[in-house]
Amino acid sequence: MKMKNLFYLVILLSLFQIGYAQSSTTFVSLLPTETKTHTVKVVLRNNIKDTILSNIIVKYNAKEPFQLIVNESFVGGKIQFRENNKTIFRQEKDIHYLMFTDHENQKRHFAFIPDLKEKNVAEIKAQGKVNYYRVYSNKDIVSASHGRAFIEKDGKWVKHKKWIDKNYFTKIQSLINDEPDLANKLNTEEISQKEIFQILNEYNKRKL
Is the same domain home to 102 and 124? Predict the structure, then answer.
């Protein structure tokens, strides 16, 4: 009888831990991380004519080093920097934009965009005729299927909760169908996000 009660207790504790992990904003911390510092250009909303050269502190997934863990790097509405041998925090809402090159030599561009009505900074993946922003919340687990994509063209916004599915391809095709060769590249069941961003950026170049 005692063994049976112990079994139920273990199950109950397991369920509690799972529920807590799913509701916690630090669930992503269960991933092994490594912290890196990159030189960053920062422009604040209260002085958009002045560019600050600073150092941003970000975290990566140690098992997949290419993967920047956005919701650990930008936590609780704040972004961590290192200046004059001191760690400082700036509010995300005070950031007009920031740009840095990550350890995979990829340029990363983030901005606080009030139009999105989101608390967190958005990563800018395409700008021009078609604008593409993606936002993680603090509760998002690092995965291509989590988070939100915001796509804008001619003042019309499309919000997509999952980044990769057939409906997603259709939405983007409808925005770039005036360039058939680019739209046709989305007639597929599988394509990487990187390729999608390349298509959108090529579209924007043609519309300059």
Answer: no
Q: What is the DSSP string of the chain?
A: -HHHHHHHHHHHHHHHHHHHHHH-TTGGGGS-EEEEEEEEEEEETTEEEEEEEEEEEEEEETTEEEEE-HHHHEETTEEEEEETTEEEEEEGGGEEEEEEE-TTS-EEEEE--GGG--SS-EEEEE-SSEEEEEE--TT--SSTTSSEEEEEETTEEEEESSSSSHHHHHHHHHHHTTSHHHHHTT-SS---HHHHHHHHHHHHHHT-
Domain that holds residue 195: 113-208
Q: Distances in Å between the alpha carbon of 169 and those of 174, 182, 207?
A: 9, 12, 20
What pLDDT score was predicted for residue 166?
A: 79
83 and 132 inside one domain:
no
Q: What is the pLDDT of residue 3?
A: 56
pLDDT in tens, 132-180: 998 876 554 444 445 788 999 999 988 887 667 778 888 899 999 999 9
**Number of separate domains in the chain:** 2
User: pTM here?
Assistant: 0.77
- Residue 179 and residue 154 in one domain: yes
Q: Quick one: tokens of 154?
A: 């001619």
